[in-house]
């Protein structure tokens, strides 16, 4: 058998194996569900324990009450101010979670107007980030001597539903909060340009999760993202002190995929390249 036939055979064989190795259908659309809430009893106030700043939990208010045991979807704190412009409400945080296809929502608590949370979409493979949850900061005017939330803990869960029913991924996010005194100079960065931005420092979301389905490797990743009135810088989130008076921070996920050729394909392709190299060198020798 001459060299041309050998090369042709190797190319045909390797292409056939590649077709088999890559024949698994790429999953493009993923359904999912998420949940979450603030861990009751896990917070502290700037002036002491939870009772010192009148910190309270509420799992009945809002658009999506938490379904995670021991958590609540809303936490509030502080002594409402009676100064001009105050609305007579505490400050607070609200978690908004759901599932693909759920929403859109209008979060409206603590004297705020409707705050739009868009419909939660399916995750689309190799299509970038999608919202899978949100937290709303209700930044109302409270008294400085009444204290404010200093630290708290948010638990979130996430699960792929279809076509793969994945395990429930649960993550605790530690929160540190700096509520500014609204006097210049500001104690730190002030990207919104208000007097002064409030600052949340949060622990990381889980690292990327790599899994294989039907012969294809997928990577599921998470991140925090800007929403109206919020600027995310890594694990630091700045919320505007002035209008709109509320800020939305998103939790996002994405799925990326890559097809890895089976080892036999790579070996045959390598053999073909080696033989091709010998043939070229042989021609040069003449």
How are the elements arranged and paired?
Blueprint: H1 3-21, E1 29-39, E2 44-45, E3 56-58, E4 71-72, E5 74-77, E6 91-97, E7 105-107, E8 115-117, E9 123-124, E10 130-138, E11 149-162, E12 169-178, E13 198-202, E14 209-213, E15 216-225, E16 230-233, E17 236-239, E18 246-258, H2 263-285
Antiparallel strand pairs: 1-4, 1-9, 1-11, 2-11, 3-5, 5-6, 6-10, 7-8, 10-18, 11-12, 12-13, 13-17, 14-15, 15-18, 16-17
Task: Describe the structure in your own words.
It is a single chain. The chain has 286 residues and is mostly beta strands. Strand 16 and strand 17 form a beta hairpin. The chain contains two helices and 18 strands. Helix 1 runs antiparallel to helix 2. Helix content is 15%, strand content 39%. The protein has one domain. The protein starts with a helix and ends with a helix.
How would you summarize what this structure contains?
With 286 residues, the chain is mainly beta.
Number of H/I helices: 2
As a whole number of angstroms, the C-alpha radius of gyration is: 27 Å
Unreliably modeled segments: 1-22, 264-269, 271-276
Number of domains: 1
- Major sheet summary line: 9 strands, antiparallel
Average pLDDT reading: 85
E-strand count: 18
Notable characteristics:
elongated, 286 residues, 7-stranded antiparallel beta sheet, disordered N terminus, mainly beta, 18 strands
